[in-house]
Design brief:
The chain is an alpha/beta fold and 286 residues long. The chain has helices spanning 2-51, 99-104, 130-137, 156-166, 188-206, 216-223, 277-283, and strands spanning 59-64, 67-72, 77-80, 85-90, 106-107, 110-121, 125-126, 143-149, 177-179, 211-215, 232-235, 252-259, 268-273. It has 2 domains: 1-51; 59-283, TIM Barrel (Alpha-Beta Barrel). A hairpin with a 2-residue loop joins strand 5 (106-107) and strand 6 (110-121). Helix 4 (156-166) packs parallel to helix 5 (188-206). It is globular, with a radius of gyration of 31 Å.
């Protein structure tokens, strides 16, 4: 009775070995098929990337809030795609600037259209590079403007006199800008009183309404609901969209301080204007 049992065991082992071999072959074929599929998808994605001019190696779309930005390798930053007028602001910290190279730089339709140049700070500090930058920008097609870094603790008349001594606006120049972002431990009432005095002195001199620049935090704390007749320039780097605390419209948005531009060594602030180039020119001195 042992012989039939041995034959059965031998047959069972043979069948087990065959099934194991078939399973190994099936797994091998499945692996090869999966490899082919993955490679095919990768090739298809690469082809789609090649065919899409926005998705080239130096540009790609990133989400920021509910809006999109496009990263530009040459500029080194993500730029809001739904604005057409772009600009920068500079000071002595950018050192010697080749403004012709700034003007000529174009990447996928993006170019610099305007520049704000620091002229002065506080009561006694003119910017050492202002006069050179101011003269050289005039030789380009860039719209130019000048700004003063305001110190609320200092006499606004003395500060206005310093700025006016540095800046001679011509027809077609952008309005003067007051950069107010430091309280100097002054109360909101004191900040606003001195700021209004400074704005009045500049408007009397240049016959155009100045622009107020501030970061969103300072604006919310001290300026919201005030100065509604002046264009507002907001610095906010955390993304788009952002909401003004008083529901007013901003005119300029400084969205990055880490941009790269041909002709400028180091990083530079990037801005957009909330409107068309024609609307920007309409703000300029007549």
């Amino acid at each position: 009775m042992r012989v039939p049992c041995d034959r059965f065991n031998t047959h069972y082992l043979r069948m087990k070995h065959i099934h194991k071999t078939q399973l190994s072959i099936a797994l091998l074929l499945f692996g090869l098929l999966l490899s082919v599929l993955v490679k095919g998808v990768g090739t298809l994605m690469a082809q789609m990337k090649h065919d899409d001019p926005v998705a080239e190696e130096d540009n790609f779309i990133t989400n920021s809030g509910s809006a999109e930005k496009i990263f530009y390798k040459d500029f080194g930053i993500s730029i809001p795609y739904n604005f057409s007028v772009h600009g920068i602001d500079v000071s002595k910290h950018q050192q010697n600037i080749n403004w012709k190279q700034v003007e000529d730089m174009r990447v996928k339709g993006i170019k610099i259209s305007f520049v704000f140049i620091k002229a002065s700070e506080g009561a006694t500090r003119p910017d050492n590079s202002f006069q050179k930058n101011w003269r050289e920008v005039e030789q380009t097609n860039l719209l130019r403007g000048a700004y003063h870094f305001f110190r609320p603790v200092k006499d606004p008349k003395v500060q206005a006199d310093l700025f006016i001594s540095q800046v001679k606006l011509k027809k077609g120049d952008l309005p003067p800008v007051v950069d107010v972002e430091n309280s100097n431990r002054q109360s909101t009432d004191r900040i606003c009183h001195n700021l209004q005095r400074f704005l009045d002195l500049l408007e009397d001199e240049y016959h155009v309404k100045p622009i107020i620049y501030s970061n969103l935090s300072f604006y919310t704390l001290h300026l919201a609901g005030k100065f509604n007749k002046y264009p507002i320039w907001i610095a906010y780097y955390l993304g788009d969209p952002f909401e003004m605390p008083d529901d007013r419209n901003w005119s300029f948005w400084q969205y990055s301080e880490n941009g790269n531009v041909n002709g400028i060594r180091g990083k530079v602030d990037f801005n957009v204007f909330h409107g068309s180039l024609g609307q920007l020119k309409a703000l300029c001195k007549k």
